[in-house]
Amino acid sequence: MAERDGGAVINADALQVYADWRVLTARPSAEEEARAPHMLYGHVPGEVAYSTGRWLREVRQALADCTARGLRPIIVGGTGLNFTSLTSGLVDIPETPPEVRARADALGPEALRADLAARDPATLAAIDAANPMRVQRAWEVLEATGRPLIDWQAETPPPLLPLSATVPLVLRPDIPWLNARIAARFDQMLAEGALEEARAALPGWDPARPSAKALGAPELIAHLRGELTLDDARDRAVTLTRQYAKRQRTWFRNRMKDWRVLDIGPETRLSDLLAAV
To answer: Rounded CA gap, 75 and 46, in Å?
Structure first.
C-alpha cells in the first residue's frame, strides 16, 4: 500500500519500538524498510519505559512529517490501546514516579490485581484484567495520583486522529490458520537469530523492563540460563503468543466495533486486500 500510494509505514506496536528485538518482535526487515519510509521502529533503548502517551506524541510528529513530505500515513500494529487512544483520545496522566514503579514490579501481577480489586474495582472491571501490563498501569496511576484510572479516562480530550478521518481496518484471521502461522513464525524467528538476540540481552536482563515483555523473550532467557530446553522454551512461547492473539481478537471485537473487518485466511490474496483499500 505504501509503495502504491506513496505512503509511510508508522508503527503502532508497543514492542516493535525497542532496539533490542528486531527478530523477536517481527519488526520489518531492512529490505522491507528500503521499499518505503518507516517510522517509530526500533528507536527506543530496551531499558527505557515507553507509554501510549509518549507514542501519541511521537505519532503527532510523524503525521506532521508525512504532511510536510506529501506521504500517506499508514499506521499498523497489534497494540489495540494505541489505536483506540489515537482515534478516541487519551488523557494526559502524570508520569509514574520510579519508586512507585519499583514497588509495582516487586509486588507482581497477582498482588497488584488483588489490591486493585479491593481499592479500585471499577477500574479493574473496565480494563483487560488478564493483561499484567494493563493491571500494573492501573495500580500505578491509583498509587501515584490517588485517583482511579477510570476517573482520569473520564476527562479524555479530543482524539489526535478521529476515526472519521481514517480508513480503519481490522484483519480477522482464520484461527486455525493463524495458530499454525504463529508456530511457524516462531520457528522462523529462531532460524533468523532470535536466540542470539536473547543472548545479547542476557547480561543486563531485567524482567521488569517493558521491553522484557516481548513474547518469547523470557522463555529464551530461561533456556539460556539452563532452566528450559530450547524445545520447551519454543513451545511455551508459541502457547503464550496464541493466548495473546486471542486477547487481541477480544479487544478488537469489543473496542473497535466501528472499524471495517477484513477476513483473511490461507486463500487470501494480497491483491484482494489491496483492492479493498
So the answer is: 22
Instruction: Quote the CA–CA distance of 259 and 249 in Å, as a whole number.
Output: 13
Contact 142, 148 (CB under 8 A): yes
pTM of the model: 0.81
Ranges of residues in the chain whose predicted pLDDT is under 50: none
pLDDT for the residue 156? 79
Contacts of 218 (CB under 8 A, 6+ apart): 207, 212
Residue that has been written with the C-alpha cell 477500574 in this structure: 123
**CA distances (Å), origin 94, targets 53, 102, 122:** 10, 16, 20
* φ, ψ dihedrals at 111, nearest 5°: -65, -40
Query: H or E element: which one contains 9?
Result: strand 7-11
Strand, helix or coil for residue 172: strand
Q: Count CB neighbours of 236 within 10 A.
A: 17
- Side chain identity at residue 230, one-letter code: L
- Residue-level length of the chain: 277
> Do 138 and 113 touch, CB atoms closer than 8 A?
no
Alpha carbons within 13 angstroms on the beta-carbon side of residue 244 total 16
- Which residues lie across from 18 on neighbouring strands? 44
Q: What is the pLDDT of residue 16?
A: 97
Q: What is the DSSP string of 33-102?
A: HTTS-EESSS-B-TTS---HHHHHHHHHHHHHHHHHHT-EEEEE-S-HHHHHHHHH----PPPPPHHHHH
Cell of 146: 490517588
The C-alpha atoms of residue 239 and residue 235 are separated, in whole angstroms, by 6
Question: Residue 168, by phi and psi: left (phi above 0), alpha (psi -120 to 50) or beta?
Answer: beta
Q: Which of 96, 162, 84 is nearest to 126 (CA)?
A: 84
Residue 62 in contact with residue 40, Cβ under 8 Å? Answer: yes
